[in-house]
Amino acid sequence: MILTGFFTDTYAASRLISFSTHSTFVPFHHSLRIFNHLHNPNTFIWNTIMRAHLELHNSPHQALNFYKLFLSENANIPDNYTYPILLRSCAARVSEFEGKEIHNHIVKFGFDSDVYVRNTLINLYSVCGNMVSAREVFEESPVLDLVSWNTLLAGYVQVGDVEEAECVYGRMPERNTIASNSMIVLFGRKGLVAKACQLFDGIQGKDMVSWSAMISCYEQNGMCEEALVLFVDMNANGVMVDEVVVVSAISACARLSVVWTGKSMHGLAAKVGIEAYVSLQNALIHLYLGTQ
User: Fold this and answer.
1) Long-range contacts of 17-22 (CB under 8 A, 24+ apart)
2) Could you tell me which of 184, 218, 217 has the C-alpha nearest to residue 203?
3) How far apart are CA 213 and CA 193, in angstroms?
4) pTM value?
5) Could you read off the pLDDT of 64-84 as tens digits, one per residue?
């Protein structure tokens, strides 16, 4: 492309950068070399590089550094795809200070009414434990979608605020399975087993997380027999298991000292290919050592 002069073609350069950053055959430093040869890269290209730093290379600080470079060297302006990348980078660093700086830029460039941007703002403040700011962004949003409600609810679940979580859940125009699962997790942590059970029973179309959350709720609150009975029901309903629910079930076996039941779950874990997870290995060690 250098030989043919296509590096001055913005569209061709955009496609090349997009391909190279997602290709397992092209090292990322090659993508950066391509980027450095571009004449006035457009906002899409800058966004692609910042997203690659965040999502593919676990370098949120580099995504933020590229944004500073973008502002100082680029003739283009950010767009509504730029700021969710940056806010997610701040959330990955649990950096509310940097997030607030990005928030100010969002207002400055006029993207504060974009629902995707606002949802990512709610998530940032929630991750940082600042539910006052998260709620302000939520309440001031001109448009709320299901992600807005789920994100705010997840924030209250994270900080363990049952009252506010129940308030948000009750106000939701559409209570989907994700929201109900979050509430079960919260109720389990707070010892509100009856509420968790009632909510679980009312879920239409339970998914794996629903079953896992309820089994974990029982196990966390010392109701290990109930946890194992529900685990059996889960398997009987043909629901796929993951390492999280198997760990809860094996922990229940350890508490009840039912090593043979635990061994059968060990076999199930090996069968579905999750035996190597560290959390599962630790649970198995606890099971076998505790029942000797």
Assistant:
1) 17/41, 17/45, 17/48, 17/49, 18/48, 21/48, 21/49, 21/51, 21/52, 21/56, 22/52, 22/56
2) 184
3) 11
4) 0.87
5) 999 999 999 877 899 999 999
